[in-house]
């Protein structure tokens, strides 16, 4: 006999024949509405909803509505706003995840999603309450993955600054309600408990004692059912997924204490622990509330950057449109004091731009016509018109945040180890608590419950799970303020271990502001001719050495095809004549005996050579001034006992000159990309290398070094190969970053030492009955706050 609608549980009207195959069986439904919702759930492979739900749906139930909303995220037009595609052609999204409270929550989400075919990466950051998801859209839909997260009890949606702010404020408001109720109840119950504790009643007033217990029960029950609800929800998620989280022992302690107190109140036998329940809940909520505020401060960097991009933009026509709707080639006007709505090129006007949020440099920089400007930077004193060069989601600031998220969400070894230890620690706590209860039940049964309660509460490893992620988040935020973009998770672990710095010369130790100071010709070609040919070949190079020739380029390209031999030079053909520019040995290859121009002997005075059909026709002398901070950088490394080696593709005379100025003892000149990599492979295994470079020829060694830093003025391939990008181009930020890495290591060690040390000390005290439950609550909350507060020092 059919009991009711499978979807909503309501009675099925007579002569109603709606049905849908769900979970391998034909299910009867009450109306077309329930049929439509159930069909949508089945067609989109979301039937797990029916497996995990705890009660039938209602007509206005939230879950089916959300499932319908999640399906919208599969539409390409909607994904264009928040989904990116990486180099492997996989989709990538940054999610805001509501309800994540500890490392176990993050582990639970990651564990469940990694089971799904098509998920490439899922990394959850409990400090920022965000997750980085990479998936193969041809195998699995985004809506399905979001549904899985919903089924675990968490709410996930594409990260948006305003939405994240609303969710944060809503969460904090709910915590305050729960905290307020627990606090008021604790004060009331403690007044009643004083009378019970000090035994102020004689035998004839036992009924009055019994009356106070019932009053305490009624006050405590809302605390248990409402204020402590977040702990039960987290614990149930963990248990349902066959794992253990921090809130499992907390929930067990609360429920057992309440159950025992309820039994004692009804039977009028034994002790009650209502004040401990209320106090435990209050202090635990207070600790979580303060943790959330502290972690919010640590995670605010990227959100604050995005907030600086205005919501509206003014087109050249005067029409105002949403900034996120701007397209490439749109022309917008920006008034003084306004934030730029998009990346673009200035096509009219001159101004100063405050780029401090990107580079860490507080001094505004002058920008004129044809200069590149970036979304979120502040226009100074001029009216400018810019032509949009990138879509909003591909803007420079968005890329910075996206790359930083990759580093933040990919966990270093020490964080993975801490999470692993914390999960096993919960299991150990439960076993120890059980053994403690059994022991005291035999020898002092009247105290067994409160001693077990103290063990469960005092040793909760919340501080252990917070020790590493909060420190890493704070340190990454501080590096961003220095103008250093972190792209890999191991940066802070490796930077303080570096004992061998390898550095490029041109564009790294020098300004890259290369100037052509002399041109010598050999043969029939004039100076103007050789400069034009040189400029046309260098047109196809992306290296500082090509910049001096830009002004000599022809109006239209002369060479149809130019080959770039990285680290050597460029070659092209005109009228069956092969032209080469670059190093001396490179330009003399394929020597032609048809030409009778005499060979030119190699000279250290020249940096760049030009040949036609293998014969030298010109030589160019260039100069590149040193960066003002280069000498201080090298001296600082050497004072710290770090070996410094300079590798450069330039010839020896220029390299020796720079090495002498900077007091660099280890120099290797005329290096090709492969020879640089060979050098790296031959250094002692005890050397932890840091490579600093900017050019295409530095890409292999940047990728191969233990740690690498590329300058923002360098080539794209260098920046994509490096572990960090120096946005400010201030080399001294590297020294500050290393000091910060040392501080981060020390603070993580301090956090772990405190978290483990506290548990090792408090555990035997709790087992022996020397710690009251309310003292255990205070100790556990204080332990977590000490860890978070210690990590926040890294923001200074």
Ranges with pLDDT <50 over ≥5 residues? 592-598
Write down the oligomeric state: single chain
Q: What class would the helix/strand composition place it in?
A: alpha+beta
Q: Order of strands across the widest beta sheet?
A: 17-29-28-27-18-25-26
Mean pLDDT: 78
Helix content: 40-55%
Estimated share of beta-strand residues: 15-25%
Main location: membrane
Membrane topology: Multi-pass membrane protein
Protein name: Copper-translocating P-type ATPase
Subcellular location: Cell membrane
Structure description:
The protein has five domains: 18-58, no CATH class; 75-306 and 395-479 and 771-796, no CATH class; 312-394, Distorted Sandwich (Calcium-transporting ATPase, cytoplasmic transduction domain A), CATH 2.70.150.10; 491-510 and 626-722, HAD superfamily/HAD-like (Rossmann fold, 3-Layer(aba) Sandwich), CATH 3.40.50; 515-623, Calcium-transporting ATPase, cytoplasmic domain N (3-Layer(aba) Sandwich). The protein contains 27 helices and 29 strands. Strands 17-29-28-27-18-25-26 form a seven-stranded mixed beta sheet. A six-stranded antiparallel beta sheet has the order 9-8-10-16-11-14, with no helix packed on it. Helix 10 runs antiparallel to helix 11 (274-307). The model is unreliable at 592-598 (pLDDT under 50). Pfam families: ATPase-cat_bd (PF12156), E1-E2_ATPase (PF00122), HMA (PF00403), Hydrolase (PF00702). Keywords: ATP-binding, Cell membrane, Ion transport, Magnesium, Membrane, Metal-binding, Nucleotide-binding, Phosphoprotein, Translocase, Transmembrane, Transmembrane helix, Transport. This is Copper-translocating P-type ATPase.
């Amino acid at each position: 006999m059919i009991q009711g609608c499978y979807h909503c549980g309501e009675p099925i009207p007579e002569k109603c024949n709606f049905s849908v195959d769900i979970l391998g069986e034909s299910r009867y439904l009450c109306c077309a509405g329930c049929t439509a919702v159930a069909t949508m759930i089945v067609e989109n492979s979301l039937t797990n909803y029916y497996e995990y739900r705890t009660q039938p749906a209602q007509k206005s139930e939230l879950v089916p509505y959300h499932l319908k909303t999640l399906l919208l995220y599969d539409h390409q037009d909607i994904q264009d706003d928040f989904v990116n595609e990486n180099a492997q052609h996989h989709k990538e999204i940054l999610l805001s995840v509501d309800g994540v409270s500890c490392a176990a929550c993050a582990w639970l989400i990651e564990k469940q999603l990694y089971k799904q075919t098509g998920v490439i990466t899922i990394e959850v950051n409990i400090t920022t309450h965000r997750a980085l998801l990479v998936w193969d859209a041809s195998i699995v839909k985004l809506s399905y993955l979001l549904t899985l997260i919903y089924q675990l009890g968490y709410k996930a949606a594409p990260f948006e600054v305003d939405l994240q702010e609303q969710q944060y404020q809503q969460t904090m408001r709910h915590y305050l309600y729960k905290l307020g109720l627990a606090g008021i109840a604790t004060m009331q119950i403690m007044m009643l408990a004083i009378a019970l504790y000090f035994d102020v009643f004689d035998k004839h007033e036992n009924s009055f004692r019994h009356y106070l217990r019932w009053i305490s029960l009624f006050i405590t029950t809302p605390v248990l059912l409402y204020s402590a609800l977040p702990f039960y929800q987290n614990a149930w998620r963990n248990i349902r997924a066959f794992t253990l989280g921090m809130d499992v022992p907390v929930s067990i302690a609360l429920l057992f204490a309440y159950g025992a107190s309820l039994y004692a109140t009804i039977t009028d036998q034994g002790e009650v622990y209502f004040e401990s329940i209320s106090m435990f809940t209050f202090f635990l909520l207070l600790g979580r509330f303060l943790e959330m505020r502290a972690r919010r401060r640590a995670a605010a960097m990227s959100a604050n950057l995005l907030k600086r991009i205005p919501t509206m933009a003014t087109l050249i026509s005067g029409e105002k449109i949403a900034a996120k709707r701007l397209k490439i080639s749109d022309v917008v006007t920006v008034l003084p004091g306004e934030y730029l709505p998009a990346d673009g090129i200035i096509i009219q006007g001159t101004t100063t731009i405050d780029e401090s949020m990107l580079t860490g440099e507080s001094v505004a920089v002058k920008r004129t016509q044809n200069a590149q400007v970036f979304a979120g930077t502040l226009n100074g004193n001029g009216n400018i018109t810019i032509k949009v060069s990138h879509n909003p989601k591909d803007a420079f600031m968005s890329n910075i945040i996206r790359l930083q998220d990759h580093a933040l969400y990919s966990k270093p070894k020490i964080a993975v180890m801490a999470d692993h230890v914390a999960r096993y620690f919960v299991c150990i706590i439960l076993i120890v608590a059980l053994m403690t209860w059994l022991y005291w039940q035999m020898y002092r049964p009247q105290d067994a419950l409160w001693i077990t309660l103290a063990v469960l509460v005092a040793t909760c490893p919340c501080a252990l799970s917070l020790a590493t992620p909060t420190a890493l988040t704070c340190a990454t935020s501080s590096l961003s303020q220095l103008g250093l973009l972190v792209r890999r998770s191991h940066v802070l672990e490796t930077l303080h271990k570096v004992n061998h710095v390898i550095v490029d010369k041109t564009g790294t130790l020098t300004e890259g502001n290369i100037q052509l100071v002399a041109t010598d010709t050999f043969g029939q070609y004039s100076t103007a001719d050789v400069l034009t040919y040189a400029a046309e070949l260098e047109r196809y190079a992306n290296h500082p050495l090509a910049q001096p020739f830009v002004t000599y380029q022809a109006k239209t390209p002369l060479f149809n095809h130019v080959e770039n031999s990285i680290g050597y030079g460029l070659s092209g053909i005109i009228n069956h004549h092969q032209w080469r520019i670059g190093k001396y040995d490179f330009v003399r290859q394929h020597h032609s005996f048809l030409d009778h121009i005499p060979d030119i002997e190699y000279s250290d005075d020249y940096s760049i050579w030009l040949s036609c059909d293998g014969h030298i026709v010109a030589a160019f002398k260039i100069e590149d001034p040193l960066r003002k901070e280069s000498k201080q950088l090298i001296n600082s490394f050497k004072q710290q006992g770090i070996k410094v080696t300079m590798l450069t593709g330039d010839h020896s005379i220029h390299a020796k000159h720079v090495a002498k100025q900077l007091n660099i003892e280890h120099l290797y000149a005329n290096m090709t990309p492969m020879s640089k990599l060979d050098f790296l492979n031959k250094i002692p295994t005890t050397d932890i290398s840091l490579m600093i470079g900017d050019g295409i020829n530095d890409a292999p060694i940047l990728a191969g070094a233990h740690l690498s830093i590329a300058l923002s003025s360098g080539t794209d391939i260098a920046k994509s190969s490096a572990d960090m990008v120096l946005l400010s181009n201030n080399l001294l930020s590297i020294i500050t970053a290393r000091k910060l890495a040392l501080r981060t290591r020390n603070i993580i060690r301090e956090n772990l030492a405190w978290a483990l040390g506290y548990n090792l000390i408090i555990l035997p005290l709790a087992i022996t009955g020397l710690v009251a439950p309310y003292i255990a609550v205070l100790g556990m909350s204080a332990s977590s706050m000490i860890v978070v507060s210690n990590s926040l020092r890294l923001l200074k």
